[in-house]
Amino acid sequence: MxxxxxxxxxxxxxxxxxxFETINVSALKAHPEMVRSFSGELTVYQKGGTxxxxxxxxxxxxxxxxxxxxDLKDRFGIRVEIIPEQLKxxxxxxxxxxxxxxxxxxxxxxxxxxxxxxxx
Length: 120
Description:
The protein has 120 residues and is mainly β. The protein is built from one helix and eight strands, in the order ββαββββββ. It has one domain: Immunoglobulins (Immunoglobulin-like).
């Protein structure tokens, strides 16, 4: 029998990284509804937390980040969406920076990458 154990720090994100893979601008222009397929959520957890807070920013120009408090006060959600008009061709290797009110884990960095084909 095989068993897997996932050990996380007290404050962590899921997923640990975002990979948008290939974003084809021509296809998005032809089918704007495809933008939704590049949206997702990132969750930041604080084990045992009760008044957890986060503040987010990114160095990826085409990402829009929106935070929301989850029902359980030990986590925050981050809605991640692309802004099509900001897409410029090339390989993107950026980050989402998360500041927290946790004194032991004041900052988390989530890698974000994509290959953008074409310009908006």
